[in-house]
What does this fold into?
Amino acid sequence: MAGQLDKRKIGGLEVSCMGLGLMGMTAFYATNPVPTEECVATIKEALASGVTLFDTAELYNAGKSTDNNEQLLGEAIQGLPRDQVVIATKWGIYINEKGEFITDGSRKHCREAVEKSLQYLDPNTPIEESMQAMKELVEEGKIRHIGLSEVSPEDVRKAHAIHPVTAYQLEWSLWSRDAEVGWLVVQKGGSAGGFLTGAIRSPADLSEQDFRRVGQPRFAEEAFAKNMELVERMTAVAQRKGATASQLALAWVLAQGPDVVPIPGTRRIKYLKENLGAAAIQLTPEDLQELNGIFSHDKVVGERYPEPMMRLTFHYSKHEQKQS
It folds into this structure.
């Protein structure tokens, strides 16, 4: 791979300081769909630019048994030495062929999901059962490390008692700061679903089928205008730094510490290059203080997801624990 990016450590893994999130290539973002060929080209450009970490999930397959997210990644990396690529995938929530969201953290489904992932390249289940199954898969050499996504501190302790947990994935951005608890983080949502890029100017810019428009309260009509005021203030800071709003948002994430690895997602090469440019932006303590002030907790309007989905997230479980 010709490109070079600084490296960061995730447990025993060394990965590029920024990864590539693949969710939007096949799921949830219905606005301006992109052909599969263009998505594959974007992944290959990321590889050529030095990106070594790619994030996918069985959920991103969106109920399709063919032409899905994990297969798309498999096509793009075909022929590459496997030691050049780190694939992070997730299981436990998926969409069935009827379009229904299914939560299943059982040992049986764990093995099925991992086996399917290899071929392509639920709150009711105790996390101990899920971890035991993943521990067995590590011992069998089918996965290298175990990470958790959107988990509570209590579940982390239970999981770690069975097998060391390498990383935790949750949204960490200027307007979602629940990750500030001292964990090693694989960060998602640095541009907040595109809101912090400034490219989305109103809910009408999104397709009526786009998950952000129908399923994310911060994009709703009543919250959008107030949140856009924060983005305008951030954009002024970005212009002062000679950066785009998206680059500034990602530079803020990178500045949170060497144990944070952002995985911004995009379907297009031009935005990939823009995102990777964030690695060259240096923020001063004064810059960080200013940005933290713009996006203080009391100024962001709306939650990340509707209440039923928030119940599955780190945010909900963390605040529930505080109240108990």
Q: What stands out?
A: The longest strand covers residues 167-171. The CA atoms of residues 185 and 294 lie 23 Å apart. The chain has one domain: 7-323. Residues 7-323 form a domain with the TIM Barrel fold (CATH 3.20.20.100).
